[in-house]
Amino acid sequence: MVTIVDKFGGPDLSKKQEFRHPEKRNRPDNPIQRKPKWIRVKAPGSPVYNETKKIIQDNNLHTVCEEAACPNMGECWSQRHATMMIMGDTCTRACAFCNVKTGLPGPLDPDEPKNVADAVAKLGLNHVVITSVDRDDLDDGGAQHFVDVIAAIRGSSSRTTIEILTPDFLRKEGAAELCISGKPDVFNHNLETVPRNYLKIRPGARYFHSLRLLEKVKEIDPNQFTKSGLMVGLGESREEIMQVMDDMRSAGVDFLTIGQYLQPTPKHAAIERFVTPDEFAAYEKIAYAKGFLMVSSSPLTRSSHHAGEDFAKLKAARAAKQG
Q1: Of residues 99, 101, 81, the one with CA closest to residue 91
Q2: Stretch 38-56: mean pLDDT
Q3: Which helix (H) or strand (E) element contains residue 211?
Q4: Do residues 195 and 207 lie in contact, with contact meaning Cβ atoms separated by under 8 Å?
Q5: Given CB 3.0 to 4.6 Å as the disulfide criterion, which of 77, 203, 231, 283 pairs with 49?
Q6: What is the pTM for the complete model shown?
Q7: Largest CA distance in the chain
Q8: What sign has the CA pseudo-torsion 37, 43, 48, 53?
């Protein structure tokens, strides 16, 4: 059963972090470890970064770059690449790894599809990633809103390719099919971690439901590329990661991303260890051997990092395979 968290109530909500994650405020702290040298990034602040920020603000939009505290934000925004997060800034799930605010969301903004399309045009994006918070409060989980955003972008930026990173649409009959009908170029849904970790790390989700969603995309529209991602450093074993790779390939997933989990606050799940760059390179080699068309595996890999460049490589890999 999915629990929708009430962000109101409780006397001790004065601290900003407790307000963002009220369900975590009584949990014991997990000390945040010092990052190794291969994970550190420069602080954002270039002129182009500021231009990107203004376009996002002027269109009243949210980005997962900001809400999830992505370490690549400075790099991406300095190249005018921002990942739009639709349906508000408040998620109905309470995953142990995520920094997006949890609580009861407000109503959908009917102007959001137009505003997203306007921002995409102003940023001049050749490829855009659209993600969202989980909206368990909506009958369709927000599937129609995804379709409306895709249509709006296609109407104003016909040459822009579109990648969506969706919720799981758990217990939302017909929602997955509706979202697939929008015909994005890439349909992404992250499995996030190995099955053993789900109750602890992703308690509102179900591993095999998420896997089935990715499989369903290929059954309905084989031409859509499918993509999924994993975080490592949460206590998973190498064998478990390889089993998830096999599960993804059985579901027809084309593109795999693997990145290091970074703990947002002391109230979030602890990092078990920092995976070395050599281990990420080994995972990449294994994944290609298992048949993925495209693999991005590095400490700072995130679902939308270099998404445009990777999409071009993905198309080329499919063309080469088809001969």
Answers
A1: 101
A2: 83
A3: helix 207-220
A4: yes
A5: 77
A6: 0.91
A7: 64
A8: positive
**Which residue has 């949890």 as its token pair?**
102
Residue located via tokens 């992250």: 190
For residue 36, the SS3 value is coil
- Going 57 to 58 to 61 to 63, the CA torsion angle's sign is negative
Contact status, residue 105 vs residue 135, Cβ threshold 8 Å: yes
Residue 90 structure tokens = 């408040």
For 93, the token pair is 């799930």
Instruction: Please give the structure tokens belonging to residue 147.
Output: 């379709």
Model pLDDT for residues 254-278, shown as the tens digit of each residue:
999 999 999 999 999 999 999 999 9
DSSP three-state, residue 256: strand
Say what angle helices 207-220 and 238-250 make with each other, to 10 degrees: 30
Pair of tokens at residue 81 = 């690449």
Query: Which residue has 């963002």 as its token pair?
Result: 20
CB-side neighbour CA atoms (13 Å) of 221: 18
* Under 8 Å between Cβ of 280 and 38: no
Amino acid at 129: V
Determine the Cα–Cα distance for residues 44 and 48; give it in Å rounded to an integer.
Answer: 10
Please give the share of the chain, as a percent, with pLDDT higher than 90. 77
Q: How many CA atoms lie within 13 A of 169 on its CB side?
A: 26
Confidence class of residue 16 from pLDDT cuts 50, 70 and 90? Answer: very low
d(CA 34, CA 65): 22
Lowest mean pLDDT among 2-6, 63-67, 83-87, 197-201: 2-6
DSSP assigned state of 39: G
| pLDDT over 90 (residue 245) | yes
